[in-house]
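User: Is it possible to get a 3D structure for a protein together with its bound compound? The compound here is 6-O-phosphono-alpha-D-glucopyranose. I've pasted both below.
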Amino acid sequence: MCGIVGYLGKKALLPLLVQSLRQLEYRGYDSAGLSWFDSQSNQLKTVKATGKLQNLANALPPELMQETDATHPAYQLGIGHIRWATHGTPTLDNAHPHHSQNGEIVLVHNGIIENFATLKQDLQGKGYVFRSETDTESIVHLLEETMKQTAENTPFIDILRQTKQQLTGAYALTVMHQGSPERLFATRQQAPLVVGIGLNNDEFWVASDVVALVAYTNKVLYLEDGQLVELSPEGLKLFDADGQALSPRVETIVTGPLTIDKKGYKHFMLKEIYEQPDVVRNALSGRLSAVDAPIALENDAPYRSKQHGDSLPKTLDALVADVDRLVIIGCGTSYNAGLVAKYFIEQLVRVSVEVEAAGEYRYRQPVLTPKTLVVAISQSGETADTLEAIRQAKTSGARTIALTNRPDSSMAREVDAVIDVRAGVEVSVCATKSFVAQLVALQLLGIFMLEQRTPALPAQLALLPSLKQALLRIPVQMEAMLSDVDTYHKLAKKYAAYPSFLFVARGINFPVAMEGALKLKEISYIHAEGYSGAELKHGPIALLDEKMPVLTLLAGGSVFDKMLSNCQEARAREAQVIALTNEPIPDGYADTFMDVITYPACDELLSPLLSAIPLQLLSYYIAEHLGKDVDQPRNLAKSVTVE
Ligand code: G6P
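Assistant: Yes, that's possible. Here is the predicted structure of the complex:
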């Protein structure tokens, strides 16, 4: 989704801004642009391009792109943006940065201005001519108008603050003003923005994600909602929404390496699929050390300090001890991970679990009590719907946990506790390793809850040693699975031309079927649905004929036989039935399956960790066979920061 970068300092500006934007590129975008202050002409310059970032790099003045840090004694100042279209198609006019009518103010924006239509009408009435279809343009004209209405020499930060008061919605803004040539201004409201600080407090970066600036500094200030910042060679000034000066809480980034590198793989998605054994090892490390030792789960909440009046971090055992209901919310793949967790936790811990898509949850009036634990699952920790839903849960008095891959994210900063899923940076838009890492973290949370429960459930506790043993075996089993690529090449070739797929499963693998269908549609654009085998007869069976592949998940355990019957029903309608199984197929089923994919036997409760992998590989190789843009599929964004 949209990404913001900004820089003030003495490094070669345009190469730095382009490089920073490259770090955000994986999030999905359709156009890009840069503005900078040209000291020779005393003018703001802007270049934009549609399509890939390379188009922008090619359009920039070559002499500026060839500059090196050594060639730059003077202060440089610029902002950049990648846009994922919300208001208006991906055109040059709609790309950011946007200029005020007098050309003196330029800005980049992430988020959505909800009252833009009213603002636009009002501004048009005052003679402002809109050049784009964006909501963003209303902000920049409003800045100019506010400036006109304000006493001369009013500091620009006050103009920004007054303008901000008239905006409704979610936004992160970075702004330059021609009258303030060595100053960058930024503010946020329900959209992330972070400032990077150079060693001597005279060099600054701004970014919508720390990934964009981590190559330059590890000293950062995460802006909070409503805050405004002014950056200049004299230093950083932070203000609240009322204009009161604040003392900035500068943090040293402690997250793992945020490097973005394909490491020889053709696509990030393939690399991330292959990282999964290590991702599981990492997620278990220090938490599950021995089969007879309790799970050690700590609150991974980011740095808190008494100086800033933070409450002390809550421990996870205090949060889960007497919980009587769990509510899990998330979007996309994270939602599917929550659905798997419902089967796992209800069966093992005997606590009721509800799972709901965050975008629906936030507009209901759910019943929450102080004994309800709400777990928000989010790889990015920035998904707008999940963030808002967990905020509401917190306000309603429920206990809140963020289960995320980004303990530095907005979500992680607002909840009672954080569980870091430790997947490492996931670049491909299509989530793979983060799904598996989320599953492991949820399984650990479930076991942890069982171990903390009073009164204890001896029969359930007796299941834990073998379950833990099975969990520790998972990485090696994954490695064995990942050594076979030929199967997926062949299957991809055979099935890539089919226009529609069904993924069918029951029990704990039903959400994995939904996740498999999601993977396929995301990257190959083939229509696919995940269905419960039990529901097959209630509608989808009408779709079945020889043109419909039905991929069936047959995990050994409680629903294996039921699934076999569903497979026969599908085959009786001549569907192309493919089995994904970790149990020998009984005699008499030779004609039921066109193809059989096998994976190692494991505890049924853990089977989603393994059954997800063949579905990821199948989707990957089908998309690759079809020549699709695997890592950046059309219309999709990695982190959906708008509603
Ligand atoms: C987008 C991504 C998905 C992801 C979903 C939720 O749709 O493309 O891969 O599952 O957002 O993202 P989150 O960061 O909250 O897990």
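The mean pLDDT is 93. Residues 2-252 form a domain with the Glutamine Phosphoribosylpyrophosphate, subunit 1, domain 1 fold (CATH 3.60.20.10).
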